[in-house]
């Protein structure tokens, strides 16, 4: 099983600041990595696919990078609606998720 | 607009059975892999099962093999999950999701989920 480790577990920032979230995989997944955003009581929403491509309707402030085992989700300037939990997921070998990074208001 | 609406959740005793349904709108499920995923209360996400477009291939996470069965009715644009021999650790919100991708799939649309508490 490919294990995904996200860091930090919690990130406390203010609107307008830059957020950098990390996801590391236990073995290479090439670019078979996606990012989701989940708000309380809601389903996950796809943000980024193939490590760096924004999904339909996702604002340009969200960007993804990386390949192999190290990946980053960057939110360039936080909006109030961005405070949520973010999960990475690999689909190179079956499907596993990271434990999530919670972005909360400082 | 793509929509997925799950139903069928509810309290069930350990060892019991439940059948979840998911009705899709805004697209034809016959063109896509479909999946079930789950999230235990306050926990992370876990993939449960996949089914290919024609229903002839199905895949499961090890923890549910032999107990859960995924199926689909393309004519009714619906996905199902039959869950037998339920365990306390199966307690979760169950989501249906659309699978997309060329060589391997990821999940681009999710339903709002249906809660399945397993407890005596």
Give a description of the structure.
The complex is a heterodimer of chains A (106) and B (120). Chain A is an all-beta fold. In chain A, 0% of the residues lie in helices and 50% in strands. Chain A has strands at 4-7, 10-13, 19-25, 33-38, 45-49, 53-54, 62-67, 70-75, 85-90, 96-97, 101-105. Chain B has 120 residues and is mainly β. Chain B has no helices and 10 strands. In chain B, the strands form 2 sheets. In chain B, strands 3, 4, 5, 8, 9 and 10 form a 6-stranded antiparallel beta sheet that branches. A 4-stranded antiparallel beta sheet of chain B has the order 1-2-7-6, with no helix packed on it. Chain B is globular, with a radius of gyration of 13 Å. Chain B starts with a strand and ends with a strand. The mean pLDDT of chain B is 96. The chains are: A mainly beta (106), B mainly beta (120). The interface between A and B is medium-sized, with 21 and 18 residues.
Alpha plus pi helix count of chain B: 0
Give the H and E element order of chain A.
EEEEEEEEEEE
Task: Find the count of extended strands of chain A (DSSP E, 2+ residues).
Answer: 11
Average the pLDDT over all residues of chain B and give the rounded result.
96
What class would the helix/strand composition of chain B place it in? mainly beta
The most extensive interface, with participating residues per chain, is: A-B, 21 and 18 residues
The helix content of chain A, as a percent range, equals under 10%
Largest sheet of chain A: 7 strands, mixed
**Overall radius of gyration of chain B:** 13 Å
Distance between the termini of chain B: 40 Å
Count of discrete alpha- or pi-helical segments spanning 4 or more residues of chain A: 0
The end-to-end span of chain A amounts to 35 Å
- The gyration radius over C-alpha positions of chain A equals 13 Å
What overall geometry of chain A do the principal axes of the alpha carbons give? globular
- The assigned structural class of chain A equals mainly beta
**Oligomeric status:** heterodimer
Q: How many beta strands in the DSSP annotation of chain B?
A: 10
